[in-house]
Amino acid sequence: MPRLPRLAVFGLALWATLAVAQPDPLDSARWGDMRAQLFGADAQVVFDSRVSVIGPLTAEDPMNVPIAVDASALPDVVEVLVFADFNPITKVLAFRPVAARAELAFRIKLQQSSPVRAAARTTDGVWHVGGTWVITTGGGCTVPSTGSASPEWQRRLNEVSGRIWSRPEGNRVRLRIIHPMDTGLAASIPAFYIEQLSITDGQHRVLMEIDAFEPVSENPLFTLDLPPAITDLGAVQITGRDNNGNKVNAQVAR
Amino acid sequence: MKRLLAALALIACLPVAQAAGFDYRLAPRQIAPDTWVLEGAQEDFSFANGGRIVNTAFVVTDAGVVVIDSGPSRQYGEQTVAAIARATDKPIIKVWITHHHPDHFLGNQAFATRTLGALERTISDIAAEGKAFNENMYRLVGDAMRNTEVAVPTEALVPGIVEIGGHRFELLALDGHTAGDLAVFDHSTGVLFAGDLVFHDRTPTTPHATIARWLKSLDVLAALPFKQLVPGHGPVAADAGPIRQTRDYLKWLDALLTQSAAAGLDMTEVMRLPLPKVFRQMAVIDAEFPRSVSHLFPAAEEAALNTTSSHAKH
């Protein structure tokens, strides 16, 4: 093993000390649990202002809390995990940006006021955590979906609508999928939600992969941005499945 | 944190509050012959204002008192009854509820059930949603809500002229702010009680709004020969200014949401758009604008997305 320069060793030691000592900027009683449950004892987890989570200060509708995650200020993001400390199901979704920017916007269900956080894992294995508090009346996770009381979703299940916009900073894709996204926490309604989505371009090149969990809102709507280098985007393909094996397979044209 | 501090402040003075109840300090102001208005603060619901953010009113006719909206809580209703008794010894014979939002009907318990009237749609919406509204109000304004329960109006009002004790009231069955919005025009005094179809210097709220219908209703109100206009929220006016202001805001909001959806903006981005100066002057816009985005943007963005043909059948 090569000897590390003394300064680097000192720097690493200082960094490790800071990482251990870093207090939770959101001052949440649940942070210790989140840290232990989601990242494992050996993982390097740091609070990092380069990861931003934008949400309303006060959420009007706890069933549909708009959240935008942006980890694009970090180089080499492999995966981003989004979670809400005080939700009965804490994991909201994970996405791998692959060829897209490390940004994603979507809506979530909140059961009570909670930090909503994003942890971005870079290629060096370090998790960079940012987040924000969202105040809400709550109850978003334990009420039935609108779809569960209406026959419409059965006809339209996994139907996709969407659009691609050319913007100076790169293409933007918005996708909406008809799905009840039932959490399993409302009486007599089992968990029924989209688990996995893959968004590819015309050449079957993966742009982004999304693992969704129960707290993603009914009829999920995703906003993703592509880097300006991807110019030849005529259409995107979205494929995936829910936890009952129903498939999503649609093409969204410009 | 602010809310927590407010809660702590309330706890600190709880023994006093418990003994005295919440004093709304209702001071009826006469704006026309026989006509008094109880003006609310241009604020959001808070522990400090006890929900008194709404305008309610009463008209003393020869046959008895007609009340327009009962306010946000039982105590507000009771204190309205007391304020009316200070102004007249005539009995309260009608309480007309303009729509099913909690700050307008949760004072109903203070009045005889048979006097409570509203549009049919309002009655069914109060029956369906009133309990949830009431629970939410306890959370928003706290102890001022004490002992408040939902009292559903019994008389279904129909549009048209109602003559009461020398006053010629016209009941207008409109909609747009909610699915049932009652406006009352007193032809005898020229006072128009617009309910929440009209806001004045206070940002309109939209949780049950249909903007196209609301704009139509504003046209109906603007055509009335009123001398005084009592908006649901904000100061009483002697001209159609508040109608124009409400219309301008709704049109701007509608166009902004449509354009933003067509441009591919995400909801979080729309909520943070800069607001025109003319609307920044309206009370509580920083809270109400994002709320309205939450209510109305989903329909706009749905319209902006293309439906795909090739979705997989399960």
Strand and helix layout:
The complex is a heterodimer of chains A (254) and B (314).
Chain A: H1 6-21, H2 31-39, E1 45-47, E2 52-54, E3 58-59, E4 65-70, E5 77-84, E6 91-96, E7 103-108, E8 114-122, E9 127-136, H3 152-156, E10 160-165, E11 172-177, E12 194-201, E13 206-212, E14 221-225, E15 235-242, E16 247-253
Parallel strand pairs in A: 1-9, 3-9
Antiparallel strand pairs in A: 2-4, 4-7, 5-6, 5-8, 6-13, 8-9, 10-11, 11-14, 12-13, 12-15, 15-16
Chain B: H1 2-12, H2 14-20, E1 29-32, E2 35-38, E3 56-61, E4 64-68, H3 74-87, E5 92-96, H4 102-105, E6 116-119, H5 120-141, E7 155-157, E8 160-164, E9 167-174, E10 181-186, E11 191-199, H6 211-222, E12 228-233, H7 241-262, H8 267-271, H9 277-280, H10 285-304, E13 306-307
Parallel strand pairs in B: 4-5, 5-6, 6-7, 11-12
Antiparallel strand pairs in B: 1-2, 2-3, 3-4, 8-9, 9-10, 10-11
Helix pairs in contact in B: 6-7, 7-10
Number of domains of chain B: 1
CATH architecture tag of chain B = 4-Layer Sandwich
Biggest sheet details of chain B: 7 strands, mixed
State the helical fraction of chain B.
25-40%
Strand % of chain A is: 35-45%
Main structural class of chain A = mainly beta
> What is the CA-atom radius of gyration of chain A, in angstroms?
19 Å
Distance between the termini of chain A: 53 Å
Q: Identify the overall geometry of chain A.
A: globular
CATH topology of chain A: Immunoglobulin-like
Question: CATH class of chain A, anyone?
Answer: Mainly Beta
Order of helices and strands of chain B: HHEEEEHEHEHEEEEEHEHHHHE
CATH superfamily of chain B: Ribonuclease Z/Hydroxyacylglutathione hydrolase-like
- The CATH topology of chain B is given as Metallo-beta-lactamase, Chain A
Quick one: biggest sheet of chain A?
10 strands, mixed
